Amino acid sequence: MKNELKILGISTQNPGSSTGQHWFSGGKLFESFSPVDGKRIALVTGSSRKDYEQVVNSATDAFRTWRLIPAPKRGEIIRQLGDRLRQLKPALGKLVSYEMGKSYQEGMGEVQEMIDICDFALGLSRQLYGNTIHSERPGHRMYEQYHPLGIVGIITAFNFPVAVWAWNIALALVCGNTVIWKPSEKTPLCAIACQKLLAEILYRNGLPEGISSLVIGDKEIGEWLSADVRIGLISATGSTRMGKEVAVTVAQRLGKTLLELGGNNAIIVTPEADLKMTVIGAVFGAVGTAGQRCTSTRRLIIHESIYEKVKKLLTEAYDQLKIGNPLDTNNHVGPLIDKAAVNSYLDALDKIETQGGQLLIKGKVLEGDGYESGCYVQPVIAEVENHYDIVQHETFAPILYLIKYQGDISQAIDLQNGVAQGLSSAVMTNNLREAELFLSAAGSDCGIANVNIGTSGAEIGGAFGGEKDTGGGRESGSDAWKAYMRRQTNTINYSTDLPLAQGIKFDL
């Protein structure tokens, strides 16, 4: 890992001492521990209140310059970021895997998401379109245009320590905003690596360093950002609890939020499903990133006629899972992020049995050679009812709930929708009518609804986000860029008269 940090230009002795960083002078100390082996990677100094004020002032000043640069020129900066990420993909992917604990393949995939969104944003920089509207008044023209908001505050979670930042910063910068990023304090080196890459590109192009800034800290810094009237938009990714706190604080100042919160995602398996595809999608969705994706598959809603067969296939597949060092590509499942996550996992197992569920594959914390960090756990399969309290809540761990349904797919859809969250969903079926019903207004109530693929692994071309307790935000593709801008309606009078709308007369 020392070689990768060197390639990324990070010193573990003082990782915050690079050009353009204001956040390292006097805040709390944060230790970055790898869940892979339990070793401390680095000691990072967080941002003090003085540092925070300096960052906001710098971002405010930079916005005055950045907003006037033509959008295609702003896109050129994002193009350069994408090219640099292509060069450093193996090193950054390995750092993501080591600091967060996801498999090396997933770490590389996360960096590829960053590259993809840079490509998307580059094209978007020439397509920030508005509408032309016919006026009811002669000699008048109406149109709509979009302007940048100002400063965008980004709050990200540990499970995607670099990709979610890229989703936001690529669009926010192309739209003309400046950005302040508060990453998870559990993955600070990934954040420092990304910020350093972009800071160097801005420096080489003679642009203000305040266009992109980083503030490292805990919940307190998130509260500063949320309450700050100078921040035009808060884009926050994390738990529903955190999102509700952010939403209340920002709403009190009538600010804007983009919230990507919890998921409780289900796959419906109908009698006409391809079971081979079902098992692949369900297992990857449940154990990928050790169940720590917001789109992880939590529930498998299976028709009673095939329930026992699916259960058998799943348990056989779980017997083949290899758990261990995520940098070893032979392993399927890495560690949870830390001991707190392990405790949450163990607590969930107790509640499953207390509330009446049955553990088909019992969970445990793995011990012995290769598991010294204490963060490796056994992926679990449990038979439950959808109404159990533990099933209604998201547990960030590799726990898959099997739920039986009877009758037609409408009953399964009711179970699928019968939770507070509404992020991702899927149905496995070769029946066109079932598929179309699932995608209709009477179907899934989630922001993402898939047919014959799992709940995780969204592409950047579509808008990403969910409904209900997931927050309602949309990031990444489609027209998600509009969240980072303010809309303005313009009317131009090119006549020699001044007629009023609605035919009102006002003669002088």
How does this structure look, described?
Its EC number is 1.2.1.3. Pfam families: Aldedh. This is aldehyde dehydrogenase (NAD(+)). Helix content is 37%, strand content 20%. It is an alpha/beta fold and 508 residues long. It has two domains: 1-261 and 471-489, Aldehyde Dehydrogenase, Chain A, domain 1, CATH 3.40.605.10; 266-451, Aldehyde Dehydrogenase, Chain A, domain 2 (3-Layer(aba) Sandwich). The strands form six sheets. A seven-stranded mixed β-sheet has the order 12-13-14-11-10-16-17, sandwiched between helices. A five-stranded parallel β-sheet has the order 7-6-5-8-9, sandwiched between helices. A three-stranded antiparallel β-sheet has the order 3-4-21, with no helix packed on it. The radius of gyration is 24 Å and the shape is globular.
Task: Summarize the model shown.
With 508 residues, this protein is an alpha/beta fold.
Write the layout of secondary structure elements.
Blueprint: H1 2-7, E1 29-33, E2 40-45, H2 49-66, H3 71-100, H4 104-124, E3 132-134, E4 140-148, E5 151-155, H5 163-174, E6 178-182, H6 188-204, E7 212-214, H7 219-227, E8 231-237, H8 240-252, E9 256-260, E10 265-269, H9 275-287, E11 297-303, H10 307-319, H11 339-354, E12 358-361, E13 380-383, H12 389-392, E14 399-405, H13 409-417, E15 421-422, E16 424-428, H14 432-439, E17 448-451, E18 463-464, E19 467-468, E20 475-476, E21 485-493
Parallel strand pairs: 5-6, 5-8, 6-7, 8-9, 10-11, 10-16, 11-14, 13-14, 16-17
Antiparallel strand pairs: 1-2, 3-4, 4-21, 12-13, 15-19, 18-20
Helix pairs in contact: 3-4, 3-6, 4-5, 7-8, 9-10
